[in-house]
Amino acid sequence: MKEGRAYEKEGYRYSFDMLGEAAYTAHDAKRYAQSYRDALTAIAAAHPKDGRSIFERPSISVKLSALHPRYEWIKHERVMTELLPLVVALGEQAKANDLALTIDAEESDRHDLMLDFFEAVGEAGALKGWNGLGLAVQAYQKRALPTLTWLTDLARRQQRRIPVRLVKGAYWDTEIKRGQEQGLIDYPVFTRKAATDTSYIACARIMLAAQDAIYPQFATHNAHTVAAIDTLAGNRTDFEYQRLHGMGEALHDLYRDIRKGVGTRIYAPVGSHEDLLAYLVRRLLENGANTSFVNRLADDEAPVDDIIADPVTSLSKEAPLRNPRIPLPADLLPGRKNSAGFVWADPAKSEPMIAAMKTSLETLPTAGPIVSGKETGKNLHDVFDPSDRSRLIGKVAEVTEADVSNALDAACRAQDDWDALKGNARRRYTGTRRQSFRGQQRASYGAGRARGRKDPAKRAR
To answer: What is the predicted pLDDT for the residue at 362?
Structure first.
């Protein structure tokens, strides 16, 4: 706390991040929700209203997956029903105390849900037109530029200025691995660090150009990125930089001495040791990577010219632009194609599927036993969705003892007919490949039996 007060005397701003990983139970979600309410109360007590702009006041960062155990696209309606009132209430508490609230970005499969949710929060009664509701955007996502264009339009429609925290991104390893596991057509993130840095600068241009709609918040520890933004901003000071607590201190202190008027906000994690561990692991992966500016700066043997190289120039020298050491998910496996997955979080794919499923349920299907090619079921009864016992999904007729007896009789009669056909005639039904496979099975089984006769121990096994 003493360190925080010292920073505040020097003019630093704060964004408090109440640490909490994705909630797996309603109990965890309630615990995290209470921690946010308590944090807002504590921040308000330590920072009473002082007449400063909302952009200069302290803020709190909210992780939506910590507040709902099913924060995912397929549960869109449930999230809007259950989570929205909670976050709106947190926003109202923050607004009443002149504190800002930023929704943190997470994995890419939650991106579309996050945007829908953010729009809904901004349209909630007491929060309409409030400039304190912000969003984090990840530059390593290939959707970063379209996202900023959408946010600019949203801000103008909602008649407010949105604080946008632009970050490089902290889930890169997860995004790559999930893309491979799911067999995606492509990765949702860039596969070269220079591409992410280039995207960051392009995003900065968009944000600075939308002066009426976006309040830019540039989170970075990269000296080249800071210099590039300073050049793009010109004489403007209506934006801020952000850094993690304990990182980038020398860079941001130096910049504040050189350039007066531009604020720096410290992103400060708050939580217990068990909550802090997962956060620290992500930061170590992010800043400990070989391509990280922070990591390379600590390497005495790394050439300075390489460390501060222009990412646009560096990227233009790469051929291909995609990192060839990271194959597409389809090409991941040697000798064969990887199976293609279906991503429910992609509305372009999931919404047509869901619509088709709903259409198919308009005419309830029926099911029942078929014996010798004839439907024999009677006395249909209703079948309900196991996940929603009130939703009727079809009707089914159970098999009777007579059906079972008739099926067994038919199978016995068919066996005699099948034996009478002999091998050549059977081939017309089974196919030569299957016949060959069955022959190999018999040969293998016969060899195994022969080995078993020679070795009593194997026969015993």
So the answer is: 81
